[in-house]
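User: Some background: our group keeps a shared notebook of sequences we're curious about, and every so often someone picks one and asks for a predicted structure to add to the entry. Today it's my turn. The entry only has the sequence so far, pasted here. Could you supply the structure so I can complete it?
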Amino acid sequence: VPANAHVAVVSRLDAELLLDTFLKVAGSVEPRAAQQLEMELAQVTQITGVRVREDLIKSLGDTITIYQGAGGFVLLPELVVHLGVKDSKRLEAVNTRLIALAKQGLAARSENGGTRVEISPTTLGTFTGNYLKGIPIAVTWVITDDALVVATSPQTIKSHLAAASGTTESL
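Assistant: Of course. Here's the predicted structure to add to the notebook entry:
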């Protein structure tokens, strides 16, 4: 977290336990709900080729950091979400698959008269990330060896990566 961050929150989040708890609670409220949700997860896998639990959730770590950077302005603050990662290679494969599907959907949307939105690669220090181009907020994300970082702009991620590498002052 850069030293000039206004607000920062760090927490532990076991995504697999969260999913299991959610399924258990849903099943206790409506006995068929957990089974229905499992079917929905299977359908996501069928459509995307991504196994939510095995490929996505198990690749994530259990630490989440959210902070507001010093830049930005009132209506559009610099926001950063930093999720720990256990298996960056697996998460990269998920990212690549989902980007390919999203690009297809965005292209079809644009061809049908919708606003042209693109996912474009961007260099972020020594990493290559991606950002949404064509919307007011350039949502940007990058996967490093130990983190998935999502922010409101490429510059915000560059500041985060500089603080994480020790090249700028951090908390």
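Suggested note for the entry: The beta strands are 7-12, 60-73, 76-85, 118-124, 127-133, 140-143, 147-151. Residues 82 and 149 are 5 Å apart (CA to CA).
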